[in-house]
Amino acid sequence: MKHSRLTPARLTFTLLMLSTLLLLTATLSLCFGSTSYRPWQLLGNGPDAALARDVVLELRLPRTLAAIAVGGLLALAGALQQVLLRNPLADPYILGTSGGASVGALLAMLLGAGVASVNLAAGCGALLSITLVFILARKDHSSSQARLLLTGVAIASFCGALSSLLLSLAPDGLLRGMVFWMLGDLAGARWQLALPLLLALLLLVWPLARQLNVLSQGAQTAHALGANTRKLQWLLYFVAAAATAIAVTTAGMIGFIGLIVPHALRLLLGHDQRLLLPAVALTGGTVLLAADITSRILLAPQQLPVGVITALAGVPVFLWLLQHRGVVR
C-alpha cells in the first residue's frame, strides 16, 4: 500500500484522532463493568453515590490507566523489536523477557509472597533473562540479530519449562492465582509506575525516529549513511526490554498487542517512525482497553483474564491481516 508523505498536518491530525479514540474508550471503560454503576452517579448523594465512587474511582479508574499504560508499553516494545530485528513477526516477548518474569512471579507466589514481592520478583526475572540473552548473544562479539533472536528463543523455551515445573509443584490453593497471572489480568494492576515509564520511554525514542527510519533499511545501509548503529541498537533493545518487563510485571502476560498493533498501523499509516511510534503507544492502550471492557462484561459478573480476550481476538485478526494485506517489512 502506498502512503502519502508525512507532513506536520498529517502527523497532528492522525495523533489527534487516535487520542480522541483513546479518550472515548477510556470513558467507556469507566462506564461499563460487572456492576451497573456509572460515573455521573458520583454527583449524587446517599449510599448509591458512595458505592459508585468506590467502583468508578477505586476500581475502574486505576484499571483503565493500567490498561492504557500496559497496552502502550507492549505496542511500543513490539514496534521497536520489529524494526531492530527487521522482522514484522517479532513481538515484545521474543527475547525471553516474559519467560523470565513468569519464572520470577510464579516462584514468588509458590513461596507465599505478597503482591509487591511478586511484582519485584517478576521484574528481577525479566531483567535476569534479558541480561542473560545479551551476554550469551555477545559471546562471539558479533551481536548479530540472528544470534540474538535465537538466544532469546532458547531462553524463552527454558523459562517456559521452568514455569511448567513450578505450576506442577503448586498446591491447589495457589494454582488458580498463578494461572490467572500467566493468562494476563488487569484486576488490581497498578499504573503508578507503568504510565510515567511509558511517557518517559516514548519521549526518549521519539526524537530518534529519523535514525530508526534509516536503521529499518538495514544496519549496513544505516552505517553507510553515517548512523552510529551499535549505540542506537543497544539503546533501543534496552528500551524494548524495559517496556516489556514493566508491562509483564504490571499485568502478567498479555499477547498479540505488541504483535498486531504495530503491524496493522504500519499497513495503515506507513513506515515513518515519527508517526508510527506515538501512534502505536496510543493505539496499544486503546486496543487493550477495549479487550478489558469485553473481559468485564462478556460473562458479567464473572470477569475473564484480559489475556484470553486478546488471544481469542488477536489470532483471527492477525490471520486476516496476513491473508488480505500480507506481511509488510
TrEMBL record:
Membrane topology, record value: Multi-pass membrane protein
Entry keyword set = Cell membrane, Membrane, Transmembrane, Transmembrane helix, Transport
What is the organism of origin for this protein? Answer: Iodobacter ciconiae
- Top-level taxonomy: Bacteria, Pseudomonadati, Pseudomonadota, Betaproteobacteria, Neisseriales
> TM spans, by residue?
65-85, 92-112, 118-136, 148-169, 189-209, 234-261, 273-291, 303-322
| Record-given protein name | Iron ABC transporter permease
Q: Which family does it belong to?
A: Belongs to the binding-protein-dependent transport system permease family. FecCD subfamily.
Where in or outside the cell is it found? Cell membrane
An MF annotation (GO) of this entry: transmembrane transporter activity
